[in-house]
Structures are given as C-alpha cells and as structure tokens.
Write a structure and sequence with these properties.
The protein has 110 residues and is of the alpha+beta class. The chain is 23% helix and 9% strand. It has helices spanning 22-34, 45-56, and strands at residues 14-18, 38-42.
Length: 110
C-alpha cells in the first residue's frame, strides 16, 4: 500500500536550529536544507533569541497605523507580535475575539 503524504514544505520557510553541539547544528541543517528549507543556526538559546528578535524587527514585518475616528484594525494573533506605541491622545476602544477551531490554513477541507 502506498500512502501519499502532502508536501508540507512551503516557499520561504526558514528554520532556526539551536544547539550547543556544532555537529548537531550542521547535521540537522544539512538534512533540512536538502528538503528545501532555508536554515539559520545558533549555538545557544541567547543567540537564538537575538536572531529571532533581529528577524522580527525588520521593516517588512512592521505595520504602523495612525488612528483616526472609527479606525478598525484586524490581525491574526497566531503570527503577529503586537507592540503598540503610545503616540495617540484620543481614547480607543479595543476588543479581542478568539476563535477556537481545528482548521489548519492550507489544510484539506472536510
């Protein structure tokens, strides 16, 4: 019996490998790179956190909104870091909605 497994490698997926053993970092990195993943490596947790912070603070990942009367902003908390600036004077009303589901983006529909 042959079972086809859906290809889960996505374009531009980058994996951060953190391990203090260089041979582990290199070996795992080579194995994942052969499967099409882009690899970054860190020798310890502190360096890994620094790399994640540097990556997340790139301009291409930032959105700045100047609030106006009746402004509405929506985002997906599964993939967003929210860090508001305190550069506004008008009161704002903020609501949070959390949807709980088994749905997986790109997954097969039922």
């Amino acid at each position: 019996m042959v079972i086809k497994i859906r290809n889960t490698v996505m374009d531009n997926v980058r994996i951060l490998i953190i391990d203090d053993e260089k041979v582990i970092r290199e070996g795992v990195g080579r194995a994942l790179a052969k499967r099409g993943y882009e690899i970054a490596k860190a020798e310890d947790g502190n360096r890994g956190l620094e790399m994640l912070k540097e990556h997340s603070l790139q301009d291409r990942f930032q959105c700045r909104v100047r609030w106006h009367n009746k402004s509405l902003l929506l985002w997906d908390n599964r993939c967003v870091q929210h860090s508001p600036n305190v550069d506004y004077e008008e009161p704002r009303r903020m609501l949070r909605l959390a949807l709980h589901t088994d749905w997986v983006p790109g997954g097969e529909s039922a």
